[in-house]
Amino acid sequence: MSRTTKAALLWGLIAAIAPGSSFAMPWSWDMFSQPSHKAQEGTALPMPKDSVPTGGKPAFGVKTKEKSLNLPNPIPPTDESFVRGKALYNIYCAICHGDTGHGDGKLGKKYMTPSDLTSDYIKKVPDGSIYFTITYGGVGKDEEMPGQGDAISPEDRWHIVNYIKYVLSWW
Hints:
It is a single chain. This protein is mainly α and 171 residues long. 44% of the residues lie in helices and 0% in strands. It has eight helices and no strands. The longest helix is centred in the first third of the chain and has 21 residues, at 3-23.
């Protein structure tokens, strides 16, 4: 046999054996037989506790500011609610409305004039109206306040309402 024939046979043997042996390795089926949740297979994973839905605007029964006037506050104004409301207010509201609610927060001074949450108007406005404004934003003709409905859970919004109505507005 000539040297060229031997080389051709050797390469032919390698070409015939190599692909088969590489497909037989254990890693060749890892991606195919992985333990994963396939679509429409079994039940869906449960929603995490205290998560806020992001699939659109949260529904709480009313879609307009006028209809929110009769919306009752399900969270009683207790000391626990005020503590929770203050903590949430400091996170989400104080940057614009200020620590004392006078509309003198850092962003309020620089970009816009937010509502004074200690005014007589806030004392008289229904809880549902404040809840609506926190959820959807937009007070006045300029609609400057962004809605916080996607960031704050519905229950926590009511705690903020209690803090604004029963603590801030009475300073």
